[in-house]
Amino acid sequence: MTAVPRPVGALLLPGAGYTPARPLLHYARAVLEQHGFTVRELWWETPGTFARFSDAERTAWVERQVVAALAAADDCRLIVGKSLGTLAAGIAADRALPAVWLTPLLRTGAVAGALRRTPARTLLVGGTADPLWDSAVAGELPHETLEFPGADHGLELPGDVVGSVALLQTYVRALDRFAGGLARPRA
Question: Is this entry keyworded Hydrolase (predicted)?
Answer without folding.
Answer: yes
